[in-house]
Amino acid sequence: TLPGQPAGAVVVSDNNGTNTNVKTDGYTQFQMDRQPSTWSEVLKAGQTVTGYIKPDGAAVMVSARSPRLSYEDQIGKALGSTDEEWDIIKPRLVAVMDKQRALDEINKPVRINDLDEPPMTNGEVRVDLQALRQQRASAESDLAAARRDLVELMTMKQEWILVQLGILE
Predict the structure, then answer these.
(1) What is d(CA 52, CA 23) in angstroms, rounded to the nearest whole number?
(2) Quick one: what percent of the chain has pLDDT higher than 70?
(3) Residue 89: CB atoms within 10 Å
(4) Average pLDDT over residues 3-9
(5) How many alpha carbons fall within 13 Å on the CB side of residue 164?
(6) For the range 106-113, what are the long-range contacts, defined as Cβ-Cβ under 8 Å and sequence gap of 24 or more?
(7) To 5 degrees, how large is the angle CA 8–CA 10–CA 13?
């Protein structure tokens, strides 16, 4: 048997919540992300597992894939932060990304065919322009403040990574 592999059977639940005893033995192969692994890595609670089970209930091959990381968590991994550090950094990173998306939406170019009818008078045009420019300035200010809050927590290397990713300037 593989190190850490149970002798006998493992209880596995399917998508419907039905529990099944699956027998494992020294011939059962376990894979995680297509690499040889141990049963404990493959059969974690909540893990999506596939396998080939013989009619007698013995597992020949049991495999699983690691859950996909969100983009934010991929950044956390790239930054090399510990779980405790990431719990503090992530909300600030998400705030920067949200504020950048909001600014991008304001600055999103409009196609000629999608232009609204311009206001009728120069006074109305001036009010519209002031409102748009104020909205942009406010969004830029919010983004700059969020970036300052995030940079406070970064090492130089982490800051370099975030500049390379376009999250910081």
Answers:
(1) 11
(2) 76
(3) 20
(4) 52
(5) 9
(6) 106/132, 106/135, 106/136, 106/139, 107/136
(7) 155
Looking up tokens 């001036």, which residue turns up?
126
The Cβ of residue 76 has, within 10 Å, a number of other Cβ atoms equal to 20
User: How is residue 165 written in tokens?
Assistant: 């990713």
The single-letter DSSP state of residue 116 is: P
Which residue carries 């930054």 as its tokens? 79
From CA 111, how far away is CA 137, in angstroms rounded? 22
| Residue 2 clears pLDDT 70, i.e. is over it | no
φ and ψ of 27, to 5 deg: -100, -10
Contact 62, 30 (CB under 8 A): yes
Q: Go through the chain and tell me how many residues it has.
A: 169
**Which of left, alpha, beta for 17 (phi over 0: left; psi -120 to 50: alpha)?**
left
pTM over 0.85? The answer is: no
